[in-house]
Design brief:
Radius of gyration of chain B: 17 Å
Largest interface: A-B, 57 and 45 residues
Largest sheet of chain B: 8 strands, mixed
Helix content of chain A: 25-40%
CATH class of chain B: Alpha Beta
Shape of chain B: globular
Structural class of chain B: alpha/beta
Number of strands of chain A: 3
Oligomer: heterodimer
Distance between the termini of chain B: 49 Å
Strand content of chain A: 5-15%
Number of helices of chain A: 5
Helix content of chain B: 25-40%
Shape of chain A: elongated
Number of domains of chain B: 1
Amino acid sequence: MSPGPARRLVPSYLATGGVSAPEHSALEELTALTGTGRSALPHHTPAHQRLLDLVSDGGLTVMEIAGYLRLPVGVVKMLAAQLVSDGHLRAAAPLPDALAPRTNAGRPSRALLEEVMHGLLAL
Amino acid sequence: MGSSPSSTPVYLPNTNQQRVKILVAGPFGIGKTTMIQTLSEIPSLHTEEVMTDAAADIDELSVTDKKTTTVAIDFGRLTISQGRIVLYLFGTPGQRRFKPLWSDYARGALGALVIVDTRRLADSFEVMDLIEESGLDYAVAVNQFPDSPAYDAETLRLKLDIEDHTPLVICDARDWDSSLNALRALAAHLVSRSGGSR
């Protein structure tokens, strides 16, 4: 093997198999993804396979998957969106609806901020 | 090897926690990555985000062609509240030309911890402007180096031009208690800024 960190050999725009727009736009950086145990389909690329392998034993966020697979977050979102719609990944939103920011202000709720403050004090 | 994960993945214990992000912001070499490594329960990770039409002459950038640059974002994870909340700490670069990327990372963040160094205070002005423009609440953490000039808090506030309510804490990004203390100051500030919007 060659010394030093290796670059990925496939350009990121090919990793998705030519799909350039996410079908499932709800995926965020902190959406958690877990494999459903289904094996890859013929239209899945090696990048899809690597993503499935990575989360076959547990859940990780889109951001973490990008870090482990060394792919840009946008590419991971596209790959994951296809795999969610094919039934190979389960997606969990970062915040339950009750705690999600109000649509008008986009600010986190006070209840959540208080829990973060108390959680940090308890460390 | 390019095809294998960069390290052994540390899975989430489940996926029904609340996952939120806090930005750790500042110019290159200020101690963002150090603080994230200090606080993170997993080996810190990084992604390279592609940005187009950015100037291409400075650190943190590697040039891929004339119009495209990649920006490295370091991040780590800290679980609190008996596993009910996972904080993601995102190290975000401070330069204005990263603004498109910045806006993406600022969206949905609880707040930001701005790291400054008294040996080069002016280097942090740009990121403070960006944060103020984005509307995020923030606290300032002065990362103390052995040869840093020791200004009193009042002088620092004046030089940094921060509002009276903005927390200013001295910290050592290599030290867990000290870094945690900075994060706690930010969290308390975020609660006080959230008003009655329960």
